[in-house]
Amino acid sequence: MMKVIENFSSYHRQHDEKSYWPPALNRWFRGCGYSVVEQRFFGLVPYFCPTTAAKVLNAVEPLIEPVPLFRQIACGTNLVLYRRAA
Asked: Cα–Cα distances in Å, from 23 out to 10, 17, 26?
């Protein structure tokens, strides 16, 4: 969802906002000696989302967040706890 917002939101285009695919982030951190301790995906409604889109996404969010595959693909917030290898 964040990639759609980045491409169509004037705010995001003006500020060159970027999001990164979670597997890529995890790969970069692993390459620096970190491992994933915990990872959660949530929030179908992106920050700075246009009002109309936010209302639609908010209505379907309770249907998307409980489904693991949908949650990982569609939710725009990725909270990760990394730990540096000893």
From this structure: 27, 19, 5
Q: 6 or 52, which is more confident?
A: 52
Residues forming beta bridges with residue 34, ordered by sequence position: 84
Beta pairing partners, 84? 34
Beta bridge partners of 41: 78
Retrieve residue 67's tokens.
């489904």
**Which residue's structure tokens are 């500020």?**
15
> Rounded distance, CA 60 to CA 62, Å?
6
Report pLDDT for 60. Answer: 94
- In the block, residue with structure tokens 């409604």: 45
- pLDDT classification of 8: cutoffs 50, 70, 90: confident
Give the Å distances, CA to CA, from 67 to 2, 62, 71, 81, 83.
18, 9, 6, 21, 27
